[in-house]
Amino acid sequence: MQHPQGTVLSTEHVDLVRGGRYLLRDITISIEPGQHWALLGANGAGKSTLLSLFGATEHPTRGSVFVLGHKLGRVDMRELRMDIGHVNPRHTIGIPITVRNVVITGLTNTTEIIPRWSPTPEQLAHADAVIDLLGMSSRSDALWPNISQGERGRTLIARALMVEPRLLLLDEPATGLDLAAREQLLTALDDLRHQNPSLASILVTHHIEEIPSTTTHALLIKDGIITANGLADDVITTENISECFSHPIEIERRNRRWNAQSRPRELI
């Protein structure tokens, strides 16, 4: 069963129930090429669960999920995942390998280079191109244990781009980064999006300041239920964020980026 042509990802009235408890309820969303979504919610709101559906690692209990034109439940999930770029900052690498080799493992979706397998000259050139795009060329031969957390984040994004995905999932990519490393990461994401106009992406975070300026849309989730979704400017507002996080939060947008702080008591 195919979904309407061109749509990258959509869900229709999706519930996900585990142990008799609703983790997600009535999730309906559609994501088109070139859209960049921020998925926001408090800890435990259901962000990672929703991302597991988007990344084809979880089936819905009820409703339909279409990823890259294929309906979950009627497609080889493992094969489908090969066409999705998934960036997980908790990705573990057991043996010391170079940045370049970490990026190349994106082709095989493994943590190490597979024995008796070697990339083609075209694949090596592509690896160097995405490493350069993420500003990591000077660190290409550095070993994974010897690079900073920020450099690891950019390396993992380059790795995800090796399959030339139509959909890029970023699971809290700024986790553990200091201020400078976070800004380098967000700049790299903005550059990536400008150079790949048809790429769609979803960035999960619970920090407003970690949302790149190129974000076009946003989805707010609370207790497994979508509380708002649509154009980022319409969704990331004082009223919507305060409701989503159950706390009065003042939202301000400056230089195409968002900031958040508790509202002064006299305004509450």
Write the layout of secondary structure elements.
Elements: E1 9-18, E2 21-31, E3 36-40, H1 47-54, E4 62-67, E5 70-71, H2 77-81, E6 84-87, H3 99-104, H4 121-133, H5 149-160, E7 167-171, H6 179-195, E8 200-205, E9 217-222, E10 225-231, H7 232-235, H8 238-245, E11 249-254, E12 257-262
Helix pairs in contact: 4-5, 5-6
Kindly describe this structure.
The protein is α/β, with parallel strands linked by helices. Helices cover 27% and strands 28% of the residues. It is built from 8 helices and 12 strands. The chain has helices spanning 47-54, 77-81, 99-104, 121-133, 149-160, 179-195, 232-235, 238-245, and strands at 9-18, 21-31, 36-40, 62-67, 70-71, 84-87, 167-171, 200-205, 217-222, 225-231, 249-254, 257-262. Strand 9 and strand 10 form a beta hairpin. Helix 4 crosses helix 5 (149-160) and helix 5 (149-160) runs parallel beside helix 6 (179-195). It starts with 8 loop residues before the first strand and ends in a 6-residue tail after the last strand. The model has no long low-confidence stretch (mean pLDDT 91).
Strands ordered across the widest β-sheet: 6-7-8-3-9-10
| Distance N to C terminus | 50 Å
**Uncertain segments:** none
Number of strands: 12
Count every helix, treating DSSP H or I runs of 4 or more residues as helices: 8
Estimated helix fraction: 25-40%
- The general outline is globular
Strand fraction: 25-35%
Topology as a string of helices (H) and strands (E): EEEHEEHEHHHEHEEEHHEE
Structural class: alpha/beta
Biggest sheet details: 6 strands, mixed
